[in-house]
């Protein structure tokens, strides 16, 4: 369902394989690109000239029966060779440089652009998709404009030069050889097309195999308890057999392909030998010239093949160019008006001197809202005043749409109708960055960045001193967690660091929020089971961190729910109940059922504790 | 410690090569043929120049000479120059056919090899004990199954065969070159070790630079990934500028590394060009000198230069192949680790006794790795057809009870035993135990398939088999929608050649089917049977879904039972997942059912409804019910209360309430809250 919309969006094709769209990105490097291309041209000239050396050696020394002047011959050869080697070195280096520079520029540009896009973009495109645009499309484009361009120039000029040489040496022989070029080009492009399609299929099967492996390993326990090992293995084997069949088929084509191409070059050789021996027998063609022709005839097929291959690469990269360009052209769903930017600055150039302090009063005034990709209003004429320092708990099932209010309060989205007011003024009157700088966010699955613990804790407060960091850690009882590690604040956190358990990471992200000292706090509570000690620490930390801040809590813990100033119960995207804990309990509705389910676990815990 | 199944790398490689080495052997024969035929061309050129154009005499390899002589010798060729072209074409055609067969056979070998590696690994991993899976990291195993397998495949089927081929080519070329002039061969050959050594040295050295680039790319990729997954954090803390700086800095660093690497690569390539160029010069000058002295003929000179040119690229590739060898060794070792881990095995003479009998835990003590006792001398009996309820706090050992009964964990000797109808479950076939024990896990795992396939996944076989028999040939949509058939009946594999429109029977090579086509056939038929059934979803699946109170939810989805679950489809809530897992278990029709807190995310009313349906549908089943909800437990025939691995209370609901222990306290807390 997601895919179909993606496909239709990709219908819009750029002209000329999308290459013109790349021109602005090449401009900064035009000098180096021009010299690179020139040198590629020169190098192909040298390559085309080598058979001429051979011809001279054959005609002068071998046929002439003398070695006179061979010193000059060697000298000239070495000179051409060294020039070419130097030329090759520089042009290959330039090529690499251009490739990497364009790659880097595109990556920076797309990454930076992503920082300004609104949440609707991130909700409509999954992380894997966006990540591939930033990390792999840029690389493919870099390779295209550097190496593929170079190859086009080298192969094109080589063929051109060879044709000119052949025509000037012997017109008739040249024409006969050239007769083979069109069928060769046709044959090559036919195979190339089929191979591209087959390779795409192979990649698809491969990703299915990988996800099967993934499922087999992560789901091994379920597979075992259900006793479906045989079935999973049979399915897997079917997939690998499919892979084998398709791959063999691809090889069938590529083997036919290479065999035909080498056969064609042998055919060219046969023509030269046939016609050449006729001509040489009549004394019209010297042996040296015959050998030049043979070299050219044999050497021509590869460049043709390369050109066709480059073209097919260009066709296949068109998609990547289009996707990346679309990302760069993407408009943010939430933008600041020109006046606001004028006064408060934009994402990368904030004018902090004009920023007002924040109090933390939030008001939803007659808000009606639907998600840009949704077709149903999830809020209709919703009004709620959240006074500074009070806290709102939002409860409901997983996937019920509990984040909607938070998204609006943080201006990750804007209401379709109505207003969200911050400190009595419409949120749109001030910049996004102003608001965001005053928000603290603690995620359900604690998100730590790779880097040290210190880097992570200072995320919202870059200037925090170590004393302040320790103070914050103590407040949430996380100081012992950090002290326990070898390097303390310099310990690696994030994915690479397996030092911290989920519960501990949670505590660290509380400390991070406290350091940022935000006026507004969003807490997306975790449901993950942690040990009793950590659970207690987390509960205390929550109480500490929400004190005195306007907080929105997507709540799972009973303690936070019960003490909330107002509770909103969400079902199927809509707010179905609203009130304090005791009000809602009396109602015996949805909230009551949710609460009771939660309470059972607590009761068991309490029962055993009281006993001990 | 048991003896390792694969003590050496070679033994594992040989094991994987079983079934594919024949293809490699045949492909190698054709590779030899290609080399010989390719090498015939220069000879032909030389012969033409010397004996046809000139009037000297030149040698030709035996078969070609016979061929020429049969035509009438050099004189005939002089009169009919087209015949030369004909011979060249004929040789070229034979070379093209051999080249095609070589590559195709090599691909058969390579693909059979990788298919076998994957299948064996996957099979092995699924049979490794639960403990192994807990000890080894998922990501690491997956990497071994994907990228390490690729490395081994490309090394065994591409690098190794190309190494052999190149060696052969070098050998033959050198042999022919020696036939022309030994002196020149020595001069030309002197460069070969230099080029191989130089490229080996370089590739070995550059390898670490490549690794560093990969690593730094990984860092950069992680920054982007974290930024995207943590977009809420980034925005909420307003840290876009910081993120930008971080990314740009790493991007610059990474780019710089590559540019430096590029310089080295450029230096390597151009130095290679220089050495090759000098070698060609050396051959040219030296050859010309020999020609002038009359030691070799003109045709010989031309042929020699052609041989020399043919060697340039293969020789430059050898160094790389050798450098890759160390990488393949590491990959094989990583796979060997998996293949050497012993799989779960049944005791000799394992039994399949009836399972609708009393389940007895006798003095069960269980202490995994760290020695802390998770279960401590636990004994109780579940009479056949009754329900036992289990109440316990976190870490009380409830889940361990369930896992032991399903033989996910093995009970060591002397730690008590678990029997069904008096037979120790350790003496039964593990598959028998699991077939008859339906365990619903606390955190169920759903497969990325449709809901229907998920529920029906553990369906007892039988129904499907008959469909295979009655089903006619299954047609699989192939490349262009018409050209690949799979015959589901006899598991044979027929390709229709898209080029010529003729049928080519691929399995002609070995005379047998190509391996696991059987699986393929089964797969196809299975998919088809699902399609054929689409008029009516399997009755058992509907019934199970209804019993798990899942039918209404499923019908609320747009695609109903065909709805895709997981990554690519809808996300189910915790309760929906649990209910799907219950339905999954019910389809299995087990004799013993174990619910490990598997209704925790379902509200009390639905919970009660599900249990009522279960009682009706599965009367006579022995049930172990682990739960936190007293209302769930209270109807059980017997309830045990576990604390820190020991049974502290047991009895019926009424008995336990009367007793006034922990159970009563939990009961009070839960009921008090309700009022």
Brief overview, please?
The complex is a heterodimer of chains A (612) and B (675). Chain A is of the alpha/beta class and 612 residues long.
What does this structure look like?
The complex is a heterodimer of chains A (612) and B (675). In chain A, the strands form 2 sheets. In chain A, strands 6-7-8-3-9-10 form a 6-stranded mixed beta sheet, with helices on one face. Chain A has a 4-stranded antiparallel beta sheet with strand order 2-1-4-5, with no helix packed on it. Mean pLDDT of chain A is 85; it is low at 1-10. The two termini of chain A are 54 Å apart. Chain A has 23 helices and 10 strands. In chain A, helix 17 packs across helix 19 (502-516). Chain A is of the alpha/beta class and 612 residues long. Chain A folds into 3 domains: 1-169 and 310-333, ABC transporter type 1, transmembrane domain (ABC transporter transmembrane region fold), CATH 1.20.1560.10; 171-284; 335-438 and 555-612, P-loop containing nucleotide triphosphate hydrolases (Rossmann fold). Chain B is 62% helix and 10% strand. Chain B has 3 domains: 9-340, ABC transporter transmembrane region fold, CATH 1.20.1560.10; 346-446 and 573-675, P-loop containing nucleotide triphosphate hydrolases (Rossmann fold), CATH 3.40.50.300; 448-571, no CATH class. The two termini of chain B are 60 Å apart. Chain B has a 6-stranded mixed beta sheet with strand order 6-10-11-3-12-13, sandwiched between helices. A 4-stranded antiparallel beta sheet of chain B has the order 2-1-4-5, covered by helices on one side. Chain B has a 3-stranded antiparallel beta sheet with strand order 7-8-9, with helices on one face. Chain B is built from 24 helices and 13 strands. Chain B is of the alpha/beta class and 675 residues long. Chain B is elongated, with a radius of gyration of 36 Å. In chain B, helix 7 runs antiparallel to helix 12. The relative contact order of chain B is 0.08. The chains are: A alpha/beta (612), B alpha/beta (675). The interface between A and B is large, with 164 and 172 residues.
